[in-house]
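Sanity check

After download, print the first record. It should look like this:
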Amino acid sequence: MWISSRFFVIFLLLHLDTTCSEPFEAHLRGPGFVMEPPGRVEFSNSSGGWLDCSASGSPQPTVDWVHADGSAVTEIHGVRRVLRNGTLVLMPFAAAAYHQDVHNTIYRCIASNSVGRIVSRDVQVRAVVAQAYKVDVEVLSAARGCTAILRCVVPTFVKELVRVVSWVHEPAIYIYPSLQGDGKFHLLPTGELLIHNLQESDESQSFRCRSMHRLTRQVVVSSPTRLRINSHRGIISPSVVEHTAHVQVSQDEGAVLLCVAQGCPSPEYSWFTHNGAGPLPVLSGPRVRLLGPILAIEAVTGEDSGVYKCTAGNVGGEASAELRLTVATPIQVEISPNVLSVHMGGTAEFRCLVTSNGSPVGMQNILWYKDGRQLPSSGRVEDTLVVPRVSRENRGMYQCVVRRPEGDTFQATAELQLGDAPPVLLYSFIEQTLQPGPAVSLKCSAAGNPTPQISWTLDGFPLPSNGRFMIGQYITVHGDVISHVNISHVMVEDGGEYACIAENRAGRVQHAARLNIYGLPYIRLIPKVTAVSGETLNLKCPVAGYPIEEIHWERGGRELPDDIRQRVQPDGSLTISPVQKNSDSGVYTCWARNKQGHSARRSGEVTVIVPPSIEPFAFQEGLAEGMRTRTVCGVSRGDAPLKLIWLKDGDPLPDLLGANVTMLDQYSSLLSIPSLSATHSGEYTCVAKNPAAEIKYTALLQVKVPPRWIVEPVDANVERNRHIMLHCQAQGVPTPSIVWKKATGSKSGEYEEVRERPFTKLLGNGSLLLQHVKEDREGFYLCQANNGIGTGIGKVIQLKVNSSPYFSSTSRSVMVKKGDTALLQCAVSGDKPINIVWMRSGKNTLNPSTNYKISVKQEATPDGVSAELQIRTVDATDSGPYFCRASNLYGNDQQLVQLQVQEPPLPPSVLEAAMISSRSVNIKWQPKTLGTGDVTKYIVEFREADRSLPPALFVEQWQQMEVKDPPHFNAMIENLKPATRYAFRVIAEGSAGRSAPSQELVVRTEPQRPAGPPLSLSARPLSSTELLISWVAPLPELRHGDIQGYNVGYKLSSSGNTAYNFTSVSGDGDGGNGELLLSGLAKFARYTVVVQAFNQVGPGPLSEPTAAQTMEDVPSRPPEDVRCAALSSQSLQVSWQPPPIYHTNGLLQGYKLIFEPIIDDIQPSKDEVESRKTTALTMVLTGLRKYTNYSIQVLAHTRMGDGAVSKPLFCHSEEDVPEAPADIKVVSSSSQSLYISWLPPTEPNGVITKFSLYTRVVNGREELNNEKRSLPSQQAYYEAKGLHPHMEYQFWVTASTRVGEGKSSRVSSQITTNRVPARIISFGGAVVRPWRSTVTLPCTAVGKPKREWFKSDVALRQGGMHNSQLLDSGDLIISSLQLADGGNYSCQVDNGIGTDRLTHVLMVQVPPTAPTLYITSATSSSILMHWKCGFTGNAPITGYTLFYRRANGNTDEMQLSRHASSHELKGLVCGSPYQIYLSAQNKVGTSPTSTILHVRTQGHSPGHPASTALLAPNSTSLMVRLHSWPDNGCPLLYFVLQYRAVTDDPESEWVLVSNALKPQRRVVVNNLQPSTLYQLRMEAHNVAGLSQADFSFVTLTKDGDPPPPEIIHRGHRGQTTVIFANINLLIPTIAAISGMLCTIIMVIVCYRHMLKNAQPPAEQSNIQKESLENRANSEAAQRERYYATIHKVSMQNNDKIPETSEDISPYATFQLSEAGGNMSQPHHGGPANTLLHSFMYHERALAEGCSSPPPAASKNRRRHSRKTEPESEESESDQDQLTSSRTESSNQHEGKIKHSIIYHGAQSSTSSDLSPMSEQKSLPRRGRSRYHHQQYQFSTNTTPRHHNSNKMNNNTTSNTNTTATNTTATPSTSSNSNKILSPRGGNLKSISSTFKSQDSIQCHIPTLVKSPSISTQQQKQFHKQQLQSSSNSQHSSSNPNSSSLKQQQPLLITPKLHQLEANGQELLGLDGIGNSPLVACMPPSSQFRPIPHKSIMPAHEPPHHHNHQQPHPQQQQQQHPGTLLNPSTAMLSSKFFTAPTLPK
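Expected structure tokens:
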């Protein structure tokens, strides 16, 4: 802890270093005015007034107010208040409350703190009681052609407050003041109206004067006045009848001097100025205008001041008048210096600088104040204040106050700080004796001014600088300095005498004491010491250790002292006094010894320096201006280096001084001044300094100047009780003294000196300030200035005092009862004559001649006049203020007499809210102007304005608040509830009782932030990235306004961040429940959620946080750092690291390793992709192919499934010995040679390095020879020559890798012979080549044979194939290979001795055919698809390319894996059509694209809500619940809302509420009329489209009651009219009804036609029966094989996979064609849409490298209800729709269709794989038609029909109204079918025999809708082709399909399934083969759900949309079996299908 304090001490030391050099109390600052009150404040009694005063300082000053006599201003309740911020408030008051000592007096503001006090200027406060006045017009007529003057006569009691604003020239011409006039009329700024050039016509004109009261702003207009023209005859000399003797204006204002003379003829005017030596004529200029009797000067300056003379003359003579213009210029006052620090005993001097516009202003009346008290005039010389011998009492605040003759004052402040208080030690340390080790702290405390600096020494030297010493000091708040020395671990060498020295510029003080540490003697290092010659040197021996016996000093080997000047003190210090330079410089040695004899010694050097000494010098006396002077500063002694400088008044010599400084030599300097002036006076100092000392010598130079005037005094006039400043300023050297004297008698009599006394101030600048001048101050005054140079100067002036009227008594109140006589009196003093006028309310003059109730008396008194006003029979109307207005030539005054007639008050009026907040309302009111009576208080009543309460309870609810005496007209009602309606009323109470309540005021308090949080907060996960947040609104009493929404904040619970991410949810204002779906969250993460409600003010508090965790998901990142190492030729070790923890998205269940070999595509793909699971981070793969490159991928999986797969890692297994060579041949090539050839091993297991050929010669059973021969790896043949004839040779071959030699081939033997038979030494087998390449098929033979080539047993001749060539060597070369070139090629040789044959199997690799694409399901933003590849082109598929585009959009493509068989497109637009197609790639090329599928994402344009759920009308408003509008799966974007009143005029205008209304919970439509029928039209828009609906509603009555029944009935009638008037609804309705009727008629006709043509033969029934019986025995086995293929799917709602055939609902597949003109149809013959649904079936891949067909999505099936169950039809599960929105008419038609046929196409929806989406998503059930399954025991007969396929193509493209048409597949279609889910074919009637022991089941067969686009002729043609096809197929009795065309009878079916083989492909059917006409039966309870289907084309054929030739109708029928109408999703008006019918 001590160490930490050391750092604190260091900080304090640094702080002290920056502050201790400042003056004492440097942190204190005296007060200074920030805002000084103005010199004059006037206000009316109704408004009140306030005086602002604020000051700054340190500490912060306090502000007080005092009267003129210095007494404190106190608060008077209701009249005067002093606010805490220093403002003095004079409150509005009634006339009776007028107090002259309050409302007409002088105030001063005083600011004070601990430094001092300052006082503001005098503030003259004058309150004016508003009273009526009347304005008259005085006309000064003139002769014709002259100028007339109209003067506005204002009563004297308001004259100062009233100014003339304009004159009205009747009837309505306004004349305004100006400097120039318009030539005829000129309104002067003083108010006079001049009318020039009078004519007779001017007599008929009248004028009125308009005046304004500047406080009350009241405008008073005089009565009209006419002019008179004087008639003069003869010559009349001019006479000045009107002139302005004195004009006083401010600088930059305009001045008008008026001089009007009358005479005949009209006089001419001349103007002169007397400001110079003589009169000078005034000439017109830019600022000066001569306008006859007017001299106008714009923007006057001080130079314009002076006396002007106007002269008017004519032939009769001339007259003149003098006018004085005074210009008041603003002045600025400051004191220099404003802060002065003076040593104690020194002299302080302040100078008051008065300037105007930057120039000095002389002869000002200056007063000096000290701490708010005026100083006596003895210390003042002109504008300078000198304070000699400064002591502590002199420090404080000084003020210079300048008062101008105009009466306004200005002041400045300065602060005198005390300096040079020598330090005093307040605390010091003591001597201590210690053992080594402990810590020691030494402390000193000192005070002084300036703040002293404390330093420390040890034995006279600085403290050692090591880490154990720490020095610190700080200053207390009282200015004391405290310093510490802390020694952390005291040691022996730390002992010695410690001294603390406190020093400032005023002095120095020291304290020393020893610190003794026990130990041996030790002397510290003695630093070099510099001594000053002549001073005393004290050397301390820095010895440590204790105790010390003796200390000695030596010098030069001699012990000291050896001189009388030297002395060794008892403490061991050496003192030398005085020091001599020559004898005392040198090395001194100190040694110390203890009692035990231990000693120590140390030496140090001493140098001596001689300080400088200046010879005295002086300036000669009597120097005057213009003379020269010089003086020399010489240094008599002192060591170099020396520096000499000159100072003037303590500062360096300024350059402008003109003084020259010359260095005569190194020790003397010459100062010369060539020409003296007053500025040279001052103190001149010579400074000489060297390293020893700095010496100064000062001499005074004074240049004598006699006094002369700066401001010469002038005569002055002053009104009584006003202030006046008599200016008198002179300058000279020495500064002249100003003395004022006053004559005791006449001007030439005796004078006595004027001394300082109250209201008489002698200012420092010489001005004399006379305050509150009375008559005794009148007389002659003499100002004298003298400085001893010459005789001095003086001036006598005269002061005149004009006494305006004044009242001796204060205002009073007279209280009279109603009906009595009121007597009002007033006594006024002042110069006579005095005019008395009585006024009522300051406005109306009371005249007894016009008011019979009053009488006026007036008597003269010695001091003035006494007046009396009597009012008889007073009533309430007589109450109010009365003014006694007195005026004379010098001013006016008035006295207020308040008359009160007691009467009960009237209720207040104009009740209004001045301020409304959330919990308070400030209301104000106005008292009734007539008969208010004596109101003692007001009572404010208030209550909550709740209309739901009965009126009887209102009285009890009122709460009261009293506003007591004195009554205010406002009140603050607090503690209210936010956002609540309140009613207020006010009652006045007086002495006579209470008034009636005022009218009620209803206001609503402002809202506040909600005070309560939302309730019942819950968070529920919906997915791995979504949380559903729900809550309940805060309690109603805590909402404090309309809840506008909620802020939902969420954050990760595991993050250290305390901040939430907020999302706003808009509310509905009624505080309903809310919820928000948070999406895009981290997977499997725990979140903390809070909610806060907000209203229009802001958000409320946060709710208690709740936590929820998102669901698990599959890992989004693959495992990292996947590595692989080969362990052996058949094993690999794979290791990896887990995915990043933030991307596991759940609890890892383990890892899956996916690997496959990368093999040559020529080899058949025997290895499938394998996967293995593990929970470890490493796995060893065994049983692999030797020396094979493997592709390895790793994924992590959670409970939710497999995560992302890592990038493929390729790893090669090790080499191994190869397998045996595949084959070997040995043939005889001659009698002594054999030719051996062989094939390399099929499994080389490495790189073949060589072949080893083994030869063995056998003679019988004896082995004669054995030979091994090594051959290169590229050689596969060998000819052994030089063999023995007729010997048996055996050969075998082995292959070798770098690992070793492999297995041997079979042993082949051959006997050499002379006859060489024909033999082929080449090998046959499979040959794989890409198309368009060239292949060579070898056929090398021996025996010179004849060769023949065959292709599939057909002989090939030279030139027989256009792209083949037979070489002489026997090889066959085929170039430009095509797919048709593939096959078996055989080469046969024969030479008569022998024959041989070789076969090559050629496979040509071509690009694959187009895959078949299925759409499994679709959501609002995604589409799930599966596909089945076609012919692979004899090469593995390398990948797929998926193409998709939105309608009218750009095509996007996506690359997919070769293993993929399904994909989910995500991020799609809701409710939008898309075109999707797919292509496949292999190594040769890319396939054509698949059929373009047209799919629409789920969601439609908005639906239509019920009007009762949507609308809630009120009396004048309608609430629209927008949240009830169904969005049909696509979020709503905006609404268009308009309405109109339903009137007889059908063309009434629609009122648009909004055309872009954002989705919200509700919106209110206002400004409706009660009991009115309205029509509302709304449009709802989303991305899928818009829907429009019209609604009718009736507003409630004005009282909120239901509207009259006739309006409601009219609304019901109006709805029908509105619907049929809307053509947008009418046309689709008519079209839909017509289409439905046509469809019904066509179905009936087709049905009868089929019945007529059905003639089934009887023999077909027998054949069918036999076929059924033959297959009955194998039915169980077939069923087992079938169900073994079912992929178990996790079903929702606990659905189970059916385990028996009776549980299966075999769904049909169907194909959709997209409707609408905006959807381009494909240009091929096939259907456009393929949708795939329902069960998944396993099957093997149809071709190598192809993925399986897609699975169907699992679906939770809902059982169909009867039509009588409307709830089930409109349940929530049916809201999601796949198809587009439909019109109302199409929905109605569709709901009546009964579908009775189910067709299953040529290919079922089977798959071996299941995507995640198929497990979780189901086909949407939106927009299902309301149809019913008809239950049949035998099917409906339907005649087969046929039509031209080409027309079908065109119809599907151009005519979108095609319904399902029927085609029957011919037997040839069986070659193209893959796997078919079908009913049993053949004679269906005979099936009934199998149901004898079983219950019959009913087939749900939806009715097929007939296509209106197929003509009857087309139907007959198709039927005819069907019969022909049937007869041609009867050649095989085993094919029951051939009988199905003839036997078409009613049937009962049991769904017994068979699995058949047709052309190598599996068929799933119901006792039939794949191409039978199909029927799907299901249990009655099962729900019909169709499966989309698309047949696959032959692999070797390109897609049809690439073939520009139209195929044959029969081919087209074969390739495109057709489409079935999906009853659950198809729309009659927009979806059209083709499908074959079911033969009966």
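If your output differs, re-run the checksum step. Summary of this record's structure: The mean pLDDT is 77.
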